[in-house]
Amino acid sequence: MGDRRRIAVMTSGGDASGMNATIRAVTRYAIHKGLEVYGFYEGYKGLIKNNFKVLDLTSVGGIIDRGGTFLYSARSERFRCREGQKEAIESLKKNKIEGLVVIGGD
Asked: Across 13-96, where does the E strand assignment appear?
């Protein structure tokens, strides 16, 4: 960590094929461009709870053949309300994350 710019990636809604491959591609490209990448577990639920892992090339190696999403995915009723959205924004601000890549629906 340090002074590098940061983005986050997460999955939302039901699992779909290609989610891990997309997480891997986003992470590898961002690192190649000099960014730090945070992976939020369980979609918006994890974003609200600030439940993340800093991703690197090792953490996304070997995930493209696995089904589902290694970050897990969950629907979040809390995020549907204004207060939950504010909590999610605070989580991004707290971690100095400038961009969020959401993979999936819901």
From this structure: 36-40, 52-55
